[in-house]
Structure formats: C-alpha cells, structure tokens
Amino acid sequence: MVINFAAGPAKLPEEVLKEVQSNLLNCNGSGISVMEMSHRSGNYEKIQELAIANLRELLNIPKNYKVLLMQGGGTGQFAAVAMNLIGRTGSADYVITGSWSAKAAKEAAQYGKVNAVLPKLDKYTDVPRQKDWKLDPNASYVYYCDNETVEGVEFDFVPEVGANVPLACDMSSNFLSRPIDVSKFGLIFAGAQKNIGPAGVTVIIVREDLLGKQLKITPSILNFELMDKNSSLLNTPPTFGIYVMGLVFQWIKRNQGIEGMAKLANAKSKLIYDIIDGSNGFYYCPVESRVRSHMNVPFRIGSAAGNDALEKEFLAKAETEGMIQLKGHRSVGGIRASLYNAITLDETQQLAKLMLSFYEKNKN
Fold first, then answer.
1. Which of 18, 22, 87, 314 is deepest in the core (most CB within 10 A)?
2. Which candidate, 305, 324, 307, 328, places its Cα nearest to that of 316?
3. Which residues are catalytic?
4. H runs (alpha helix) in the chain
C-alpha cells in the first residue's frame, strides 16, 4: 500500500476512485464514459449541475454568488482576478505571505497598480496582524492566499476590509477543509488538484455585482461575466475532472461535511506538530504556531537549516514503508507532509510512527 503525501496533484478518496473505476466505461447508465460525453448533452448537464448544487450546499453559498468552473488553474486565476476586478480603480492591495501570493501579485502588476500591503521578506513564517497592514481605501480589491503550500503558512483569521473593497482569496490548498463565511468575500477561487479533484478544474465563487467590470483586454476564456452567461460552457470544460470533483463533494457530504473535514484536519495536523514540538529540536518547523497550516506541514531534521544526510535517510525510509512525495518544495528544501482531506487519520498515524522511531534512533 502507498500513502501519497503529495502537495498536488494530491491523493483522492479511495472510494471515489473506485466509483470512477466502476463507471468508467458506462457513466450513470449512459453507455459511454464521461470522457466521451458531449458537454452539451443532458447526461453531462446533470453531472455539472449536481456538482455545483452540492458545493452550494456544503458552503451555504448565498444566492447572490455565482459558481464558475474554469480552466487554467490558480495561475490562470492570478491573471483572471486582476483582469476582472482591477479596472474599478486601477489598483489592488496584495497581502504577500508566501510564494503563491507573491506570484499572484507579480501577475496582477501587468494589468494595474499593485500595492504590497506588507514589506517583502526573505522567508515567510507568519501572517502579520492586520493592524500592521497598509491598506489603500481606494483599492479595487484586497487579495490574499489563505494557505501557502510551500511555506506551510495558513491564515488564522479572515481579513476585515472596507464595505466598498471586495476581498479576493486563493483557497486552492485548503478549500473545503474548514468552514468559511462566503458572504465575507467578493471572490474565492480554488484549483481542484489539492483537495477536491484532479488537476484541470478551478472553482470560482464570485459575488454577482462584481461581474461585468473586466478590462477590455480580458480574453473570453478568463471573462467571469461571459463564463457565467454561458453556465461555464463557453468552451469545452474539463468534463472528467468536474465529474470526479462532484463525486468528492458527495463523499464530503457523507463524511459529516465541512465540519467533519475540519475535525479531521485538526486531529491529523496536531499529531504531527506535537511530535515536532516534543522532539527537543530534532524536528524543526519554522512557522509561527498560530498560523501553522493544517494542510501542509513543512519541517527540517537535525537543525533549523536541516541535516541533508538525515533528511535523505528519512525520505528513503519513508519510501520503503510506502510513504511517498514527502520531499519539501525545491525552493525551501526539507520535508513536507501534505494532509489534505483524503489523507486518513490512520495514514497520518503511520507517518507519526515513523517520525517517532526515526527520532529515537537518531536523536543523539
């Protein structure tokens, strides 16, 4: 058995994969695979509408919000968010707390003025409290990334912004892992490949009054208003990915919904962080405890800078025990365990067991 701790594309629930497998050649009695279905057919229409309805139920999405299913991943949305929203005043506030928000800000700067709310840092290990932010009251929107997968930093609060300044959030890596109040946001987007499905689908939840404000240069494929008018069918959508994502939404509903996912995320991450904190510095996590990610746990072995030999030995030992994709992001090194919704508590306990035994063997 293999336990996949990848940061993305990440593990999918086993029962969802088995359902996909059993329906692969004959989806919902249609006689064909979902991969062969016309996106204009009644069979596919039911799949997409059910997926969106279940997402609306899971997040209690208000009626004045649109749900769009698009392509291009998070990186596509770095451009789309700016192109659709920055035109109101020509500038936007970006809260940069890691690699992904930094990339989003760089992309947005091609389409308007970007105000970096926080000073640039060499390493991101915290989310400064909002009293230290320098927000522009005339910004078209305030943008942040709720969970930075590379650095393992996750917001422990929802920023408060002016009534006339919408909040835009990248939730790609912690989407549906904890309750959120959608009404506090103007826009939320999430690439599916972390927590809710295969790579290729991006979910956008956008307040309807923000539609129709796009820059003239906005390509049709990134135009929220056009995508909404065409029910996310302006072009051929990633039909297979949407089908699988819809099954994941049903799986979440069967497993106590968002509250069940949050409870599991808290238990799994606590298990690993407790071992790190109890190791007398043998394991080291650089992230401030209040903003440690429940989804992505980065750590070093031996010291804050890491011991390359020990880390390679740990990763090799993990692979022999069927635990894969634990190597840290190339920009920060070390080790990273991604504990998305599909990772079970039992699988996390197996990682914890390895960490404890490796500590006992090498602590001196």
1. 314
2. 324
3. 100, 170, 194
4. 14-22, 42-59, 73-85, 99-108, 224-229, 239-254, 257-277, 308-320, 345-362
User: Which stretches within 190-233 are classed as H helix?
Assistant: 224-229
| Cis before 9? omega within 30 | yes
Q: How far, in Å, CA of 244 to CA of 12, rounded?
A: 9
Q: What is the pLDDT of residues 204-246, one digit of tens each?
A: 999 999 999 999 999 999 999 999 999 999 999 999 999 999 9
Strand, coil or helix: 206: strand
Other Cβ atoms less than 10 A from the Cβ of 61: the count is 17
pLDDT digits (tens, 9 = 90+) for 9-45: 999 999 999 999 999 999 999 999 999 999 999 999 9
* β-strand partners of 68: 204
Q: Residue 233, class by beta-carbon neighbours within 10 Å (0-12 exposed, 13-18 middle, 19+ buried)?
A: middle
SS3 298: strand
Beta bridge partners, 65, equal 207
The string of DSSP codes covering 129-195 is -GGG----TT-S-EEEESEETTTTEE-SSPPP--TTS-EEEE-TTTTTSS---GGG-SEEEEETTTT
Q: Say which residues have a Cβ less than 8 Å from residue 29's Cβ, sequence separation at least 6.
A: none
With beta carbons less than 8 A apart as the criterion, state whether 58 and 257 touch.
Answer: yes
| Tokens at 72, concatenated | 């291009």
Nearest-5° Cα angle at 213, 68 to 227 = 25
- The length of the chain in residues reads 364
Mean pLDDT of the 333-362 span: 97
Q: Which two tokens stand for residue 106?
A: 């760089």
Distance CA 236, CA 253 (A): 28
Confidence of residue 329 (pLDDT cuts 50, 70, 90): confident
Provide the residue type at 154 as one letter: E
Q: How far apart are the first and last CA of the chain?
A: 32
Helix (H) or strand (E) holding 300: strand 296-301
Residue from 355, 13, 7, 337 nearest 191 by CA: 7
Task: State pTM to two decimals.
Answer: 0.97
